[in-house]
TrEMBL record:
Domain of life: Bacteria
InterPro entries in alphabetical order: Pur-cyt_permease (IPR001248), Pur-cyt_permease_Fcy2/21/22 (IPR026030)
Protein name per its UniProtKB record: Purine-cytosine permease-like protein
Family: Belongs to the purine-cytosine permease (2.A.39) family.
Organism (species): Saccharopolyspora dendranthemae
Amino acid sequence: MPPETTSLPDPAAAPRDAGIERHGVDTIPEEDRTGRPRDVLGILLGSNMCLGVVIFGWLPASFGLGFWPAVSSMVAGTLLGTVLVAPLSLVSFRTATNLSTSSGGTFGVRGRLIGSMIGLLLSLGYAALTVWTGGAAIVGPLHRLLGLPDGGGSYSAAYAVLAVLSVLIAIFGYRLLTRLSKWVAAGTVVLVVLGLFGYSVKFSTAPVVDGYAMGDFWTTWALSAVAAGLSGPMAFITMLGDYSRYVSPRRYSSSKVFVASAVGMVLGLLVPQLFGTFTSFASGAADDYVGPLVAAAPVWFLIPLLLNGVFGTIGNAGALIYSMGLDLDAILPPLSRVQATILTSVISTALVFVGYFVWDAQDAVTAFVLLLTAVGTPWAVITLIGFVHCRGRYDPDALQVYNRRSRGGIYWFAAGWNPRAVAAWAFGSAIGLLSVDTALFRGPLIDWTFGIDLSFVLAAITTAVVYLLLTIGSRQPVPRTAKTEAPARTTTV
C-alpha cells in the first residue's frame, strides 16, 4: 500500500475572510495555520506606522541630543533589541499558541502567568500611548483646518472614537489585522515621503533643548538608546507569537520566520521613529511633540496627518488590544477572548484620559518603557534559553493545562511553577529595576554604573548567569517523539 500523505492547507487558497477570530490562547489547529512569514512582516510594518511609535523618535530630541547622535542612539538600540527579541517568534511558531502560554514550557504552566502579566502591562501602556497621540493628531489638524475647539472636550471625543474603532478591530482579530496593516503601511510610507518634503525647509540638526537631560553626552545617549531604541523591540517580547503561531512549520522554515520578524521590527520601528526625529528637529519640539508637529505642518500636510491619526492609531491600538485580550484570556481562562478584549480596552481607555489630564508626557513615557524593559528582559532571556535547551520541541497539549483548569503534564514542575526560572526572573528583574534611571525613579545601582542606565544589559546578563547556574544538572522537559509520544496525564481540578 502506498504511504499515507497529509494534505497541507494552501495559504493562497485558504479563506481570507475578516470574520471574528475563533481562537484565543488555545493551540491553533494545523488546518487554520494558513499564515505566511510575509504576513508576520506585514503586520509588524503596518501596526507600527502610527504616531504612537513616531513619538519615540521625539524622545532623543527632548533629551537634548543633536540630530545625528539621536539617530545613532535609536539605530543602535533597535538593532540590539531585535537580536534578542526576534528569535522569540520561533517559540510560538513551534507551539501554535501565544508566547506567554508557550513560556509555560520553561516557567511552568502556572509560572507562565508572569509572561501574561508582562505582556498585558506592555500592551496596555503602549495602547494608551497610541490612542493618546492619535487623538492629538486628530484634534490639532481639525482645529487648524476647521477652527474646531481644541480643549478637553474635543480630545475626550477623539479618544472615545479611536478606542471604539480599535476594540472592534481587535475583536475581529488576526485576519482583519493582517489586512489592515498592509494598507496602513502603504499609507504611512506616503505620509513619510510627504512629510520629509513638507518639513525640510525648517529642518536643522542643532539640538532643540539646551543641555543634556542626564548632564553629559554619553549618559544621555545611553538613555536614548534604551528609551527610544531598545524599548521598541522589547514591546514585542510577548506579541510576536500572536502572529507567528498562525505560520505552519510544515510549510515554512524557521529561518524565514526569523528573518520576517527581524526585518519587520527593524523597518517597522525605525521608519516611523526616524521620521519622528526628523520632524522633531524641523518643528522645534521640546516639551511636546504632536502640538509643534501640527503647528509647523504645511496646510496641505494636515489631511495626511489626520488620516494617519485615525487609521494608523486604530491599526496599532487594535493590534495591542488584541494582544491584551489574549494575555487576559490566558490569565482568566473563564473569559472568552472577546470578553477579555473588551475589558482590557476599557482599562486602556481609562489610562488614555489619565495620561492626558494628569501625567507629564516625557517623564511618563520614559519611566514606563524603562521600568517594563527591566522586568521584561529577564523573562525574554529565560524563555529563549528554554527554547534552546528543548531544541524547539514542545508538548502543545501540556502547555494548555492551566487554560483548561487541569493539573499535571510535563510542565507541571512544582505545583505548576518552575522555581529555578521564577527565581532567576525575580533576581534579574530586581537588578534591572535597581539600575533604572528616570525622572520618576532612580535606582541605587546607578551610582555604580557611572550614572549610565544599564538596566537592560545588567538584567539580561544577570538573568542568564543565574538561570544557567540554577539549571546545572537539570534538564528542560522535552516531549517524546511522535512515534512514542503519549498524551500528558492531567487531572481536572
